Fold:
Amino acid sequence: MTTTFPLLHHQVLNASTEPSGTPLLLLHGLFGSADNWGSIARYFAQKRSVISVDLRNHGRSPHHESQTYSEMAADVLAVCEHLKLTQVHVLGHSLGGKVAMQFAMQWPQRVSKLMVVDMAMRAYADVHTPLIDAMLAVDLHQCASRGDVDKALAPAIPNLMVRQFLLTNLHKVDGRLQWRLNLAALKANYGQLQSALLPPVATGLTMPSLFIRGERSDYVNAQDMHTISQHFTQARFVSLPTDHWVHAEQPQLFIQAVDAFLA
Structure:
């Protein structure tokens, strides 16, 4: 494959010089980065190579004015080809879960096992544009610290946990705070990110697939599970006592579910 888009930033964690098992590729959610996987990535790196990527317009990956699911899946393929990985297990949360499904649909021969965390194939309502607008409205030139940015965001985003998560995207360049996120592109492409996945294959995909949902989350409902099962015929479903951030809220239960599936 050839691509004119720069390679995604990615972290490679290995258990040893010769890690065993199929490599595990991790995909974060909207406003996230490879760093979000933290201890989860380190745990699985005890047994196999783990590749955690920053999606385009996120983290340390390049910025681009366009952001479709097909483009993001192609970005992931480029990372696999760069690392000479013929097959991978793919684990994605939220937005990363949709990218994982898109990757599996476009290149099923590349996916040994698919794992999707609290995300379905359907279109979702707009709940993120207000967050993007709030971040764009902050005058970072007037902010000397993350605390200053936090205070500026608080009126529009009263939820402290949400603000703390968004603030992980700040970094300093020449002593000035900047967002790593390409906020303008995320806002311009948000309609694409909301949209449903359109399977390019007529028959169901047969790779083993695990869909983990949060019991207190509304991201995956009964109809979603039916639709998923039609397209991923070997799908298994696990519910954990969490909201949307399943792996952050219940890391041990999450690890146990993924470990059992990969065993």
Observations:
- The chain is about 35% helix and 15% strand.
- The chain has a mean pLDDT of 94.
